[in-house]
Amino acid sequence: MSVFSLLNLPAVRAARRPPAGLPVAVRGGQALILRPVAPEDAADLAAFFGRLSPRTLYLRYFTPLPAMPPERASQEIARLMSAGRRTFVGRLADHRGRPAAGQALVAVVELALLPEHPEVAELALVVEDSYQRQGIGSAICAALPRLLAGSGLVGLRATALAENRAVGRLFAAIGPYAALRIGELTEYEAAL
Q: How many CA atoms are closer than 13 Å to the CA of 189, on its beta-carbon side?
């Protein structure tokens, strides 16, 4: 059974129009449209990865990268669009609640089912540097229980560098959570 059937969401497939998204309210009255990734997002994903700072890349991938090399970005895009993952992209919305014309991606959310516990997904979330500390990540995480309702998932997990304390705030937005520090890493878990 694929992650798409477990999440009760359509599999990524070629389409002329990206699928509709879930509006997510963020600080300042702005809205973000969170929707499943689509093949036509590949160029925007490449640009998104190109805008991430070395610090953001380090916190996401646990390895120092001065920039995302194009070949690594291509591999990452292919991985995010693979059938074993559920990936969502976020764009800021206009005053009508639609993705703003020409608006770049500001966030990428990835869920991967754990083979040993297929009812639990590993969560990875990246917000572009210029949009960090504006409540976007917390708003996305607060919307995840609604987005994943009826999916069969009962929980989310994440592994983060212990210095990345923002992950604790993200999990707090999901609801009650547990955290366990193991050396340089912290494991987070929350029920949906």
A: 11
Q: Is 8 left (phi over 0), alpha (psi -120 to 50) or beta?
A: left
Q: What is the pLDDT of residue 95?
A: 59
The pTM of the whole model exceeds 0.70: yes
Separation in Å, CA 79 to CA 134, 163, 172, 188: 28, 26, 28, 23
Q: Alpha-carbon distance 35 to 23, whole Å? A: 9
Identify which of 140, 94, 86 has the alpha carbon closest to the alpha carbon of residue 110.
Answer: 86
How many Å apart are CA 128 and CA 66, to the nearest integer? 15
What's 30's DSSP letter?
-
- Band of residue 92 on the pLDDT scale cut at 50, 70, 90: confident
Residue 78 CB-half CA count within 13 A: 6
DSSP class of residue 61? H
Q: Where are the beta strands (DSSP E) in 11-146?
A: 22-25, 31-36, 86-92, 105-114, 117-127
- The tokens for 170 are 């993200």
Distance CA 31, CA 33 (A): 7
* Gap between the Cα atoms of 188 and 181, Å rounded: 9
